[in-house]
Design goal:
single chain, about 300 residues, alpha+beta, 3-stranded antiparallel beta sheet, elongated
Length: about 300
Amino acid sequence: MTWILIGIIVAFVIVFAALTIKIVPQQRVGVVERLGKYNRLLSPGLNIVIPIIDQVRKYHDLRIQQANVPPQTVITKDNVQVQIDTIIFYQVVGPEQATYGISDYVYGVRNISTATMRQIIGKLELDETLSGREKISVEIRVALDEATEKWGVRIERVEVIDIKPPSDIQEAMDKQMKAERSKRAIVLEAEAAKQDMILRAEGDKQSKILKAEGDKEARIREAEGLGQAQELEAIGQAKAIRAVAEAERNRIEMLKEAGLDENVLTYKSFEALQELSKGPANKVFIPTRAVETLGSIGAIGEMFKATKDK
């Protein structure tokens, strides 16, 4: 009997402790009601509540959560049905409001997202819908923020995962895309051919220019070489003339140093003319100015003979 009583007491203590001690994990909070009325929040860690009087109504995860919105079929402004998949990222920032402001905030977020999406897509045509994912996401987020602010929920991000048009329109879009790619390929090929022709023409032009410049440079160098050769030849001829003149001048000076003056040289020249004229076929023409000096030939001869006798 005693052991049964001890067992009952131990069991009572364990149950009482389990109902009194509440351990809350990190990034979670608990909403406590006392006698059916909101009392306080249980913070992460060890918490004490009064059994029977206090009751934990709900636990909330304060981490960012995600809610997948089921694919929705909506109609665009140009009466085309498209299927849109979205995902919503949210965070509970007011546990009390999230508990008492709405019965199921996840369900409410999905419904508001669907209704807002229908309104937005109804104002857009198909092309605008396919290219306006960012715009659709922003407008859905704005609409959700206005509604969820009272629920203690903050919308972090809305992503449009996929937009699927009808199969016939998708097929037409694929054909259009292929045609656009073929067109771009043809244009690129034509541009490449054009660029190739331009480069070839530029290369031929540069080749001709370089060849002309080379011919010009060769002619210039040839002319410079010819000029230098002529200059050197002229210098050589001048040097030769100067050498001959210098030799003649030295010969005359040597004759003068030997005592032969101008009259003696004239007489010697006349004797040489006489020797030349002795030949039967030789004729000697004497310049007029030389005749004036012939009158003194005899005197010159006598003077020369006297010089030899001495």
